[in-house]
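User: Teach me something about this protein's shape.
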Amino acid sequence: MEAALPTSCIRAMKVLMTAKNKSPADDPCPAGETHAGTGQALHERLKEITCLYEIRRGMGLERSFDVVCQQIFRHLIPAMQFPELATAVIELEGKRFTSKNHGYGLTHELQSKISVNNKPCGQLRVFYPEDKPFLVPEEQKLIDAIASDLEMWLERKQIDEALRERLKEITCLYEIRRGIGLELSVDNACQQIFEHLIPAMQFPELATAVIELDGRRFTSENHGGGLTHELQSKISANNKPCGQLRVFYPEDKPFLVPEEQRLIDAVASDLEMWLERKQIDEALGERLKEITCLYEIRRGMGQELSLDSACQQIFEHLIPAMQFPEIATAVIELDGRRFTSENHGQGLTHELQSGISVNNKICGQLRVFYPVDKPFLVPEEQRLIDAVASDLERWLERKVLEQTLVSIAEEHQRAIGQELHDNLGQQIAAISYQARALEKKIAALGSKDASTVAASIAAQAQTAVMVCKQVAQGLLSFELDTNGLVAALQAFASKIAATYKIACEFLCKNEVVISDNNLALNLYRIAQEAVNNGIRHGGAKHVTISLSLEEGMLRLSICDDGRGFAAAGAGPKSRPTPGMGIKIMEYRARQHGAVLEILPRTEGGTEVRLEMRMD
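Assistant: First, the predicted structure itself:
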């Protein structure tokens, strides 16, 4: 909306119109000269007022210095006494703005000094040819008023520009702080800074920036050589210098010092804080990866795993915990065997390693590889590798201990079986033979009662020989060694049925051939222990042993109708407190990576179930 015309201007116009409309007869001055002089003065006054009004109305803060100066010339020149001859010049801080048709040689002038914030910064000069006089003091007063208006505009312009620059600074810092989250990479954080810092500079279309950090260099768009005029701010992280932020202008463009230096320092300070938080966040992230890695490895490395499966379990969680998981590979070497992670190839000579010992005897090592140009996080990654190697050592020691216990139990059974077969059985057989001989002698002497006792001793001794033989056969597994697992389990079921006078059957759904003698022995021993537990502790009257191999999965099941483990009021999923027999069964299963479960049956009794993958 345009400004209203000043009241004084309106009054002057009314007076001027009145003076023009008066007739000579109405004028008390005979010659009319006074009226003409008054009209001319009012006309000049009206021009001055109109000039000031138009200049003030058009001096918006959004306009540039050049446009405002031309605005002043447009209204000042017509307000002069001789507008067709007058020219004007505004000089401000070394810059010179001239009206149209201004030339040299017009030395006859009026001028008014211009100050901004009480500091002289230029002047307004109006020129006539030397033969044309100025209306002094009227025109001087007009020029002074315009110079005063220009002073006020310049002061407001400075304040407005300062506020705008401050707003750009605040907006820049706000957007940078809002945008550089810890999830960003260093490169993305630097680009985020350039995106908001460059527009906040005085000459954004010419400004470029560079961030140098630990030997790396990040540049804004369109940055090139030759821009040696710059401001810079040092960058430190944890009180250690690590780089600098540099902003460039062409040499002919001045910086707003200290305003732009203050902004660059603030941005550098924000980047310092982000780098420190990023270091803490990355350290916590690496620590979390280490903890997660160790937790998952320890949780997953059950004793039922084979050595190969345990190593693959380690690779599955160790590789993602490394600094560069997409290119890291690992190798575990144990007693001449070599286990490798996926995509492991030759030529990765840059490595960390940790030795592996079992029972204080060195047996191998864990090695992790990077390409030569990728650094390790030492000591963080070395500590993780050492911890994983230590976990593998403990797992191997437990594995060796279980194998030793099973071996001792097997040797103990063999020793007892051999002793029964070779010594005790033979001695009892000798007693039986001697009792038969004694029976005959006593019968010849005519002592019938004594003969009967001797016959009874001979019969019981013979029975004891048969029992020793059966026990020895169970302990020594002659049938297993001679005819294999299926025949041995069939013979075992028949012997149990005959010995305990119960129903005991063996089922084999399809042909099962176990070529691993150690596996066959352990399956046979598990079946023996499960059947004997069902009869002795559960009072079972019916036992079924089943063996099957389907789609690569071997299953051994021993079901009985005994009292089971929930007989004393326990829940249906209760598990027995493992004694030595059950523990050894579990050890035997774990040697081959099998899963052994002891389950209550819905119809009563217990099922011992073993499952393992046959590769």
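Now, about its shape. DSSP finds 13 helices and 17 strands in the chain. The radius of gyration is 54 Å. If you'd like, I can walk through any region in more detail.
User: That's plenty for now, thanks!
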